[in-house]
Queue: 2 jobs
Job 1
Amino acid sequence: MAAPKRGRSGSAQSKPWRPLALILIAIVALTGGMFASGHSTPRLGIDLAGGTSITLRAVAEPGQESAINKTNMNTAVDIMNRRVNGLGVSEAEVQTQGDKNIIVNIPKGTNSKEARQQVGTTAKLYFRPVLATEVSGGAATATPSPSASTSASDKATEKATDKATSSSSATPTATATSQGRPVTDGLRADSTPSASASAKASSSASPSASSSASSSTSKLEAQYAALDCTKKSVRATAGKGTKPTDTVVACGQNSQKQWQKYILGPAQVDGTDVKKAQAVFNTQTAAGWTVTMDFTSKGAKKFADVTGKLAQNQSPQNQFAIVLDGDVVSDPYVRQALTGGNAEISGSFNQEEAQSLANMLSYGALPLSFKEDSVTTVTAALGGEQLHAGLIAGAIGLALVVIYLLIFYKGLSVIAIPSLLVSAILTYVLMSLLGPAIGFALNLPAVCGAIVAIGITADSFIVFFERIRDEIREGRSLRPAVERAWPRARRTILVSDFVSFLAAAVLFIVTVGKVQGFAFTLGLTTVLDVVVVFLFTKPLMTLLARRKFFANGHKWSGLDPKALGAKPPLRRTRRPSRPTSGPVDPKEA
Amino acid sequence: MSKLGSLGARLHRGEVGYDFVGKRKIWYGVSILITITAILGLAVRGLNMGIEFQGGAVFTTPKHMSVSVTQAESFATDASGHDAVVQKLGDGSLRIQIAGIDTDKSDAIKEKLAGDLKINSETINADLVGPSWGDQIANKAWEGLAIFMVLVVIYLAIAFEWRMALAALVALIHDITITTGIYALVGFEVTPGTVIGLLTILGYSLYDTVVVFDSLKEQTKDITKQTRWTYSDVANRSINSTLMRSINTTVVALLPVGALLFIGGGFLGAGMLNDISLSLFVGLAAGAYSSIFIATPLVADLKEREPQMKALRKRVLAKRAQAAAQGETPEPEPADEQYADEHEDAAAAVVGPRNQPASRNRGRGRPSGKRR
């Protein structure tokens, strides 16, 4: 009867040890790998371990929607990573999620408040000519000598290479200004904020001398006079609501860590014109750490124009300010027109300063801003509690399923329960390994997904077992029944698991946030379900079908033909042990 | 078990069974009624969207707060300048929801609240959500839903046929409508957790439907080559024969979810576990119902419109009429049983006379290799 079948599924039937050995080796190898790698527990998400999780959403400049792309997002992640880890936060992680979200996870015990300020900072960079500058606030240095502070030590020198060509300019509009530079608090505390800063000198450096077209109004001068950069609140609002084309007042810190205030002309070059910037240790001259910039062809032309004009001016109007998020991060002066498409800023930088400036130049120019979409702070206590609750729920769920299987499938539980366990072990090990591998973190929804997956996994066994029972009801003995049931059950399992996996995959790709963690677990467990059913459940079933206990349909095997209400065997010889039995009402027999 | 086992056997052979397809109109009616109620509930009461969808903050204090709810409410309102909703959770902690506050201001509010409640602000859990975050989650979920539906319809149309795909889609929409309707009617709060649960139902509802369809496809493979059963009859049989599995699956799926609900609701009071499992629980129940009472009868309905199936129905009815005219009972019990065998076994090429020995039929079917 089952002869033609045997040929097809013969390998699986005759060598059930092979897949079993395979999966056991896989388990041992994976578990070994897990312990060897030292990650014997899954990495926990913020909601289970405690900490702060910030979700940021990228907002593009109007008209620059294409700026939200993979490269820019990765760049933003990079810069945020630097900023957060610059705070000395260990293990803070920044990653993109979906196409326009960035998740920043900060473990417990770190200053989440400061970190939040850091990551949310908009990074927008402009080069503006300096019209006037002086030290602001504190009485310590009253006279702003033009060559003092940064302007004295910073210089830009030419390094000619590629030639500039086109000169169209696209200036982004509205710039939201907020405080973004890391070092603020300490300084504010120290200096004496005096609202009426000694600002006399500024009038001499009046903006009218500027090469820029726009003449400053008296209003701006008044604003400048009143500007006290030592006040954080003042700094935060200094350039608020201004456009790149405006003449603005701004603040910045000079190399002596003093606050300096500026009147700046309209932006001449913007950050997107910078192709690349790096910190270089200049061994040829004594300049030490310098920052080199490469401009795009468009940027090079603009830069050549502006430096050409600036070079003719007197200090401080021969300086240009590099303005990041409304803060002046550097204000080098120009000695001559820089026409080569690249430039070098040198000064008394140390390595760190040079690198940070280079980063700001190359990364800070993204036409993106980020908005806090959600901030979740979970205390370690609650995290632990939630983890605990999730584990208890999982244990109870698993126990209930096991009890149900025991009651309903009796002896077949010998197959079902180890299969569930194998699934559970594989899930756990893979989750632990995926933590360091792809940054998978087990969060609460992921725990939920794993628990829900118990049902899906158990369902595969149910499909298989019910199929076998159907075959037995047809009057077959166990071994052919198993072999006949398997192809049908296999198809059903594959089709339904595929649908389940499809749902998980779509969710994972499309959605954001917590949904993603859930989808990931669901997808992972669905795949594992198929693996376990193919490599473990089926071979084990084949093996056990050879045992008398099952083959003869013992009362407790869960495959008792009588209990299942099997029809009388079509050929009596096939089941000699049970020659006759009432098919319809087994209780009679 | 022996009782259940024999029930399974009788279901399998079609000795007992419920006429799901025949009584489909009733169940369609029931479903339409539920769906209308759900839609009305959605329209009239609307969903109780959680703070995550409005923007605002949820603060959760440590356990065992001595402060009363009304006191905490006034503290929170003072601190934020907005209305606050305070709940006391099972473990004595307070859950303070303040809608409409900005994420920037939340830190100050948290500090103030901590001062008022005389606890360390570090021990307060905070969930701050910008106003657009919920929209984003919801939009993404809709997007995912749409993509999934398109893909799954394509897949089912290829794996089965378009009628089944359509029926599965209807069942899916049915499940989601009912679940959201229940949320609207009962007034459960909708959180991202709820959305997760709802999206999981997608996979699960279809999972169940697919299993029934699989059996249906198998059993109707050569349906036009016999004249005893109409498509609806066979569809009904496949539902009945997979009924045991459907019940088992649903129970096994509901057990862990029930455990989650129990733990989430009982131990944690409120939160992600509770939200996910609640929507799952409702959705799974609806999913099991729809795959049996809606999806398969719908396929039968659609199939019966095919000219082939119409012709088959005609032939079957004619044959039954003839048999009745000859004074025979149209469908004696043994015939039922035999058909089960014939069909399962051989995908009967031609169903012979009723008294044809089963063994012969088996012999004929075997080499055809159609058993898969």
Job 2
Amino acid sequence: MSNMNLTLKIWRQNGPQDKGKMVDYKVSNISEHMSFLEMMDVLNEQLINSGDSPVAFDHDCREGICGMCSMFINGEAHGPVKGTTTCQLHMRSFKDGDTIYIEPFRANAFPVIKDLVVDRSSFDRIQHAGGYISVNTSGNTQDANAIPIPKQDADLAMDAAACIGCGACVATCKNSSAMLFVGAKISQFALLPQGKIEADRRAQNMVAQMDAEGFGNCTNTGACEVECPKGISLSNIARMNWEYLAGAIK
Amino acid sequence: MATLDSKIPAGPIKDKWTSYKDHVNLVNPANKRNIDIIVVGTGLAGGSAAATLAEQGYNVKAFCYQDSPRRAHSIAAQGGINAAKNYQGDGDSVYRLFYDTVKGGDYRSREANVHRLAEVSGNIIDQCVAQGVPFARDYGGLLDNRSFGGVLVSRTFYAKGQTGQQLLLGAYSAMNRQIARGKIQMYNRHEMLDLVIVDGKARGIIARNLVTGEIERHSAHAVVLGTGGYGNVFFLSTNAMGSNVTAAWKTHKRGAFFANPCYTQIHPTCIPRSGDYQSKLTLMSESLRNDGRIWVPARKEDVEAIRNGKIKPTQIAEENRDYYLERRYPAFGNLVPRDVASRAAKERCDAGYGVNATGEAVYLDFASAINRYGKEQATIKGETDASEARIKELGKAVVEAKYGNLFDMYKQIADDNPYETPMMIYPAVHYTMGGIWVDYNLMTTIPGCYAIGEANFSDHGANRLGASALMQGLADGYFVLPYTIGDYLSNDIRTGKISTETAEFVAAEKEVRDRLEGLVNNKGTHSVDYYHKQLGSIMWNKCGMSRNAEGLKEAIAEIAELREDFWKNVSVPGSAYDLNPELEKAGRVADFLELGELFAKDALDRNESCGGHFREESAEVGGPQDGEAKRDDVNFAYVSAWEYKGKPSDAVLHKEQLEFKDIELKQRSYK
């Protein structure tokens, strides 16, 4: 299989105040076995060696779990392959001669820091508002098996908890809504007996913070679910709404 | 000169920790409010410590280089966490977990620390369940377990193949509760670049704001490092791209002894490398060895045919396959500890039986598990005359439920379907057992400076067993440090706020600035990665899975030379006072270039084979253990603790003699 020559159109923005623009780059001899970020490494090595400034992008674990990598690739969060983060996307998904558009995750609540790096601390602040169960570390909590949990509930909670907090849902949503992200956390705890006690208050507080951060509303398009690299289900948003309403009428 | 006092409490091993807790000095709640603690790193160790210390009432400042504490690399741990719960009723106990861990570590860990670890292991599971961690459960609603390498019981708790993620999100949620209360001040996208010592005590850090490039001074009454391991000294490892030794190394240079730097875990089941552009390696969880069988072709002609693409692995008949782990280690088979499994893979590949183009891959095969589970399911469903295809279908569903996400990950990376054809795997650098030397209190040789989790050295000896890293990180952070640190801080209740205007802070900040400015103004000819890759290649070839004196001496000289070249010719674009990922890398690689040399020096000193450290000069010859690692307890039953003296080659060795009062030193046999 031959190696590829590609044209990259990449968003460059030298800081939050800079206007930013798309800039063209060429990379050649890209192996189909490379990951997308390894292709970006090749570009950056090329830029450094020619005295240009490398493209800033977030990344860390490069195995699809830390949620640090972002990138809007050809109009899709994390690129064209379903259920995949940018770091796990491989160049075999592209072909020789392709032009690839690479942009940051865009949303008012995710301001650009530089190039493809955005500030997602709004997600953390939503978690501060209620993304926890109020239990201290004492060493005296009851035995783990004293709380039997139906396997189905545990599995659903795990499915919701699989969210990596990357923000693809927000970047994808035409309203920049964070409801899939927030719904996933609220659902994980609402499904478990340990989390039920604070479920109402949690939904109220997290939703209030989500609104304060400037995330948009959900209009049930479902694009977030399609683009989520971890397959977080839209039903988590329904569960969040239920918990929110239940809390509101109490 | 600092002396090595491990401060192990007196008394029988099973009473040490209880008695310690009963007699340790405490800090009154009203005084805790006046005490500041810096925690660097927010993985399982740092995150759990920050949350717990804040719950107790201390003012915590937590730092991580990622954009959120939730992204620390503990998140990537897949398989599970050990705990001596004996829920399966298969004979597990605190003593057995303690014994397995000491034996698994090839008798190079500290008994008292390991026993404490085993004692608190059960509490970890209780705590995590209370936090809402969704561990796997059986249909009765109770917690499920799986088995891991090097042990004969099922004591590993798991959350699909994402156990690290779920435990970290648990610690992160506990942190969030304290951040909301203002008890933790969180500094995301910050990197610790130096430790500040005032009057002989750790009193703060110099950190760089990675977004603005600003250099900040932060003071506290104690500094806790939960900064992880240094596997990235090999360039290619399963660590995150940002994982680094900088905080630990700066602390070492400020006076903390560095223990056993040569103890590195090379994990047997990783996806083989595919090309020079490779930036990292990906682990396939050890849990796969519960059901996967490892083999290579028994005949060279089959190896050739496989490499040329003339035949597929599924076409090789059973009798022409060499299930070398089952052959060499019948008692433990595919579940031998990691160091043993890795060396065995290397042995077969070095002998020319590797199954990919590079000759560095073996098979991990699920065909028999799929068949076994399929038959089991057919029986359960009453399908007595199920066809072979139907059995395969049923079996695949079971395997998918257990390892689905791992199989998907393999498929994405390797572009091959492991349900139909065996996975190809090869060992890769994964975890570093060595780290900053700590006493029983987890305090380094610098008063007031603590190291927890992978950043310290004490619990895993020369080899870590699977599912023990998560256990140790959370044990240190939730249940050990919060006790031991109080003992030290009880003397600090009258100290008051620590000023950041002292000469020590000013000098440390200046050093950091000079170094950063030096890097960006160097305007050399080579990128940071150019040096990092070369360092990685020296480390892998000469300090990797097997080591000898000649190679180690060469490595020492080559690393020193490379380091000199780095400082002359490295090119770092951009400014020191801006978001500059290349500058971040440059600082980290500069420290790896020093650590690497100490690593090789330590490996040279240790002329024995133990755990992950295999010295070719020290192998069994003849007899049933032919070719196995040969430990030398007479001369090497000590912890190497290195003191910094200006450069790595001048480091001075201090020895902590290891005492085994409760476990008899034996050859570690898994046969």
